[in-house]
């Protein structure tokens, strides 16, 4: 039992790290700069998936730890992503039973709200720190994230079933 | 849920997460994050743990750069013999051209230093440089930052000027053992003191955050500045060395009735394209490094 548990944990963290790699992978040279605004928050999406699927194993603490690493990775203020991930992890962990019942596109719309909150909290902290001005463009990653959710969901579910985590 | 034995919990799993545990976790970790944000914004106490954590994040950045790197490698493998030969000939002729130039420069530098010595000025024109390779780009298009593969182990320090082969790129804002983060001159939070080569007019060039553009601040509407003027770093503010190319003025808009003109410049450095940069060690800087700490406000507020 114990081995299976640690094995599962390794798989979960590997997917989170893959999300982090996707978060910093450079855009190809020929792509327009504006494409950068569409980059969704992969780590948040992976975390939400695992919280819905395995709420007893992945929770607010995992989200917080991942958030701290993302903060160091992106050079933002330490605690910024941690706070927003903790918030969305809380919502996802409270609603996971309902979310499981939803169709994947309904989940995507909830994801849009969650990722929107994620961006808003990030923006809120940066604006308190005096770093940015608001524009509606900040919600673009949430939108692209919601559209990509079905694929993230299917891939991670395939992976989870492949390694037999329930 | 507490009443189940361990086995039973494993078998059937609790149907509900305990709401109170969730609430406490949210409260505890949320507050902790807020405290961290506050502490990180106002002090530099967390910088130690930040550089410790980069041991985890540096492999992630390097992995993310792999596709780019291998694309470059594949390009080399598939380029034809003629192409390579052409490139080598081109580079050789450029090398000869640059050698001649360097010899002339060396003579000029020594002459300049002799003259400066006669004048009693301590400033030397010789700077040491260290070549670094770009390993990452900040994914946020609003933040013009890059990550390079040299860090504290190579004596890189915060505030160090960074150049590429054409001009000023930016300055180091964060140093970790094996990598460091560079704020580009085109970032909104960055400004650099410059002077116009033609008439030594002193100005401040601030980044605009959008693409490759610098904005010159507070140019009085009577100032003598025109399109095509070369801007050099003026050395004021003691951060950047004197005389490195910063940008070329490409738009001047004198607005009647406004006290200041709108002047935009295009950076000389290829901020979005160069894959290698030079870290400058000025002699005075190295000495200064020991006694001036880097102020947090300079990095975040600027």
3D architecture notes:
The complex is a heterodimer of chains A (166) and B (302). Chain A is mainly alpha-helical and 166 residues long. Chain A has one domain. Chain A contains 6 helices and no strands. In chain A, helix 2 crosses helix 4 (80-101). The longest helix of chain A is centred in the C-terminal third of the chain and has 25 residues, at 104-128. Chain A is globular, with a radius of gyration of 16 Å. By secondary structure, chain B is an alpha+beta fold. Among the domains of chain B are: 1-43; 191-267, Thrombin, subunit H, CATH 2.40.10. Chain B is 38% helix and 25% strand. Chain B is built from 6 helices and 12 strands. Chain B has helices at residues 6-12, 19-42, 47-78, 81-119, 283-291, 296-300, and strands at 128-137, 145-148, 161-163, 168-175, 180-184, 191-196, 202-207, 214-220, 230-233, 245-253, 260-267, 276-281. In chain B, strands 1-2-5-4-3-12 form a 6-stranded antiparallel barrel. A 6-stranded antiparallel barrel of chain B has the order 6-7-8-11-10-9. In chain B, strand 6 (191-196) and strand 7 form a beta hairpin. Residues 4-9 and 285-302 of chain B have low confidence and may be disordered. Chains A and B meet through helix 1, helix 3 and helix 4 of A and helix 2 and helix 3 of B.
- The overall pLDDT of chain A, averaged over residues, is 87
Strand order of the largest sheet of chain B: 1-2-5-4-3-12
For the record, give the distance between the C-alpha atoms at the N and C termini of chain B, rounded to a whole number.
Answer: 53 Å
Number of helices of chain B: 6
Computed Rg of chain B: 25 Å
CATH architecture of the domain at 191-267 in chain B: Beta Barrel
Please bin the fraction of helical residues of chain B.
25-40%
Oligomeric status of the shown chains?
heterodimer
Uncertain ranges of chain B: 4-9, 285-302
The total strand number of chain A stands at 0
Q: Name the largest protein-protein interface in this structure.
A: A-B, 48 and 49 residues
Helix content of chain A: over 70%
Distance between the termini of chain A: 12 Å
């Amino acid at each position: 039992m114990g081995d299976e548990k640690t094995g599962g944990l390794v798989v979960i963290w590997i997917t989170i790290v893959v999300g982090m790699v996707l978060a910093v992978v450079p855009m190809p040279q020929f792509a327009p700069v504006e494409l950068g605004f569409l980059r969704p928050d992969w780590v948040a999406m992976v975390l939400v998936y695992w919280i819905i699927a395995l709420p007893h194993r992945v929770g607010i603490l995992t989200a917080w730890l991942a958030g701290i690493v993302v903060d160091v990775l992106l050079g933002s203020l330490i605690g910024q992503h941690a706070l927003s991930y903790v918030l969305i992890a809380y919502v996802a962990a409270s609603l996971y039973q309902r979310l499981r019942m939803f169709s994947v596109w309904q989940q995507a719309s909830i994801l849009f709200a969650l990722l929107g909150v994620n961006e808003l909290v990030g923006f809120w902290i940066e604006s308190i720190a005096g770093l940015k001005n608001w524009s509606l463009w900040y919600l673009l990653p949430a939108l692209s994230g919601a559209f990509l959710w079905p694929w993230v969901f299917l891939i991670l579910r395939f992976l989870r079933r492949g390694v037999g985590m329930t | 849920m507490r009443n189940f034995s361990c086995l039973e919990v494993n078998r059937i799993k609790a149907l509900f997460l305990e709401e109170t545990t969730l609430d406490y976790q949210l409260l505890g970790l949320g507050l902790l994050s807020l405290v961290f944000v506050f502490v990180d914004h106002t002090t530099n106490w967390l910088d130690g743990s930040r550089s410790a954590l980069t041991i985890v994040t540096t492999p992630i950045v390097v992995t993310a750069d792999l596709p780019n790197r291998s694309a470059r490698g594949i390009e080399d493998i598939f380029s034809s013999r003629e192409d390579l030969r052409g490139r080598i000939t081109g580079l050789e002729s450029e090398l000869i051209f640059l050698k001649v130039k360097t010899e002339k420069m060396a003579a000029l530098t020594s002459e300049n230093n002799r003259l400066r010595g006669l004048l009693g000025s301590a400033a030397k024109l010789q700077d040491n440089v260290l070549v670094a390779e770009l390993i990452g780009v900040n994914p946020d298009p609003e933040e013009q930052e890059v990550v390079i593969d040299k860090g504290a182990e190579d004596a890189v320090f915060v505030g160090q000027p960074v150049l590429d082969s054409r001009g000023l790129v930016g300055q180091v804002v964060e140093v970790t053992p094996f990598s460091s983060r560079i704020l580009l001159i085109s970032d909104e939070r960055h400004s650099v003191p410059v002077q116009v080569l033609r008439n030594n007019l002193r100005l401040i060039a601030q980044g605009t955050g959008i693409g490759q553009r610098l904005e010159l601040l507070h140019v009085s509407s009577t100032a003598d500045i025109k399109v095509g003027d070369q801007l050099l770093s003026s050395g004021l503010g003691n951060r950047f060395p004197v005389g490195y190319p910063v940008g070329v003025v490409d738009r001047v808009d004198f607005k009647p009735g406004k006290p200041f003109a709108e002047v935009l410049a295009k950076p000389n450095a290829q901020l979005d394209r160069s894959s290698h940069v030079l870290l400058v060690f000025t002699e005075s800087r190295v000495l200064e490094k020991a006694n001036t700490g880097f102020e947090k406000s300079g990095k975040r507020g600027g």
